[in-house]
Specification:
Layout lengths: L7 H17 L3 H17 L3 H17 L3 H17 L3 H17 L3 H17 L9 H9 L14 E2 L10 E2 L2 E2 L5 E2 L1
Antiparallel strand pairs: 1-4, 2-3
Helix pairs in contact: 1-2, 2-3, 2-4, 3-4, 4-5, 4-6, 5-6
Length: about 180
């Protein structure tokens, strides 16, 4: 609730308390989910390196437990955090790993989310001459005015959950979209 209400300090405190309780109980699955939520909270406040580390740690725990859903969703979350850090190779690798896991689970939402984010990673790649990526190239094609051509030094992709007002729905709850351009 605190995270949804954008009370970031309260959310982080409560999530750390949850992690401490799961560690005290030696509950590996609870530890992994707490780390996952802390990673998502770190993405919310643009702490991408921290989000990446927390998500990687949670993924490792889920893999050790052979937890299929946890491995699938955390592979995706690690990919999102890598994408936010502009580590495109890792992001693409984790999205591919997540796609395989979601395919095994017959989870359409997961497959679609991975495909969308693989597209974001492709758009973030530099263009053929080291300039802005394909997204900038396509914007120029739609609008040939010189001012429509972004400055490569200022062109950047930032990935931040959630974008309010998303029309995507999954069983009645709003899904986060992890992208925004500046």
């Amino acid at each position: 609730m605190a995270q949804a209400e954008e009370r970031h300090e309260d959310a982080a405190r409560l999530l750390r308390e949850s992690l401490a309780l799961h560690r005290e109980l030696d509950d590996e699955e609870g530890i992994a989910w707490s780390l996952d939520h802390l990673g998502l909270q770190a993405l919310d406040v643009h702490e991408y390196d921290r989000a990446y580390r927390l998500s990687e740690e949670a993924l490792s725990l889920f893999q050790r437990q052979n937890h299929a859903w946890g491995t699938a969703i955390l592979s995706f979350h690690v990919g999102v955090a890598a994408l936010a850090r502009n580590d495109l190779a890792t992001a693409e690798q984790r999205f591919e790993q997540a796609m395989v896991a979601f395919r095994d689970l017959a989870n359409t939402w997961g497959l679609v989310s991975c495909l969308i984010h693989r597209g974001f990673a492709a758009l973030a790649r530099p263009g053929p001459r080291g300039g802005p990526g394909d997204a900038a190239h396509h914007r120029r094609r739609r609008d040939p005015r010189p001012e429509a051509t972004p400055d490569p030094a200022r062109e950047s992709w930032k990935f931040v959950p959630p974008i309010r007002g998303s029309k995507l729905q999954d069983h009645g709850r709003q899904l986060p979209l992890y992208w925004q351009t500046s």
